[in-house]
């Protein structure tokens, strides 16, 4: 792992379930934002806020008990903003099969103590 990458990994829990028995899309969006946020703050060494979430597409369902991998990568550094690509994959541990579930791009803006944008050094 380096400064431009971050990976989070955890099990899909029963409390993540939606009305169809797989993982709730809202939970996935929260994890995407959290991974992007953690990477943005660590990369910028500054607090950051989410400015934009682009092109979120759910490609395949995640099942309860799957191991989830959230991978975030800095793809562009601006003056005050960072564009971060986040990929979500899940692994069925019994079959040892991993599939891609979701991908999207987020923009985070570095902010100062007053909540105003600030330059990323
Ligand atoms: C983030 C915030 C401080 C930015 O202030 P702002 O005056 O809108 O800033 P600007 O329009 O000058 O844009 C700042 C940066 O974001 C980028 N940006 C602005 N709008 C954007 C958009 N729609 N998509 C992608 N990037 C965008 C700009 O290009 C600029 O990047 P750069 O400095 O690297 O060139 C302000 O919009 C804000 O507080 N938003 C609410 C954030 C929030 O509550 N998020 C949810 C909870 S974390």
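^ Assign residues to that structure.
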């Amino acid at each position: 792992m380096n400064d431009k990458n971050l990976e989070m990994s955890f099990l899909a829990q029963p409390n993540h379930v939606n009305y169809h028995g797989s993982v709730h899309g809202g939970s996935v969006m929260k994890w995407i934002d959290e991974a992007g946020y953690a990477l943005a703050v660590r990369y910028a060494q500054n607090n950051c806020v989410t400015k934009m979430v682009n092109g979120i597409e759910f490609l395949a369902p995640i099942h309860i008990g799957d191991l989830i991998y959230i991978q975030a990568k800095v793809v562009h550094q601006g003056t005050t903003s960072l564009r971060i690509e986040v990929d979500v994959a899940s692994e069925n541990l019994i079959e040892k099969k991993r599939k891609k579930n979701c991908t999207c791009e987020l923009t985070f803006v570095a902010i100062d103590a007053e909540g105003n944008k600030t330059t990323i050094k």
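The two ends are 21 Å apart (CA to CA).
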